[in-house]
Amino acid sequence: MGYKMQIYQILAQTAALILCGVVWRQLRPYGLDTGDTRRVLSNVVYGLLLPALVLRVLWRVPLGLDVLKVSFVAVCAISAALLVAWGWYRLQGIDRPAVGALLLAAAFGNVTYLGLPVLESVLGPGMRHVALEFDLFASTPLLLTVGVLLARHYGGLGKGENPLLALIKVPPVLAALAAVGLNITGVPLHPWLEGVFDKLASGVVPLMLVVVGLGLEWKRGWARRLVLLIPALVIQMLLMPLWVWGLGLGIGLSGDLLVAVVLEGAMPCMLLGIVICERYGLDTPLYAEAVTVSTGLAAVTLPAWYHWLT
Question: Which fold has domain 2-309?
Answer without folding.
Answer: Na+/H+ antiporter like fold (1.20.1530)
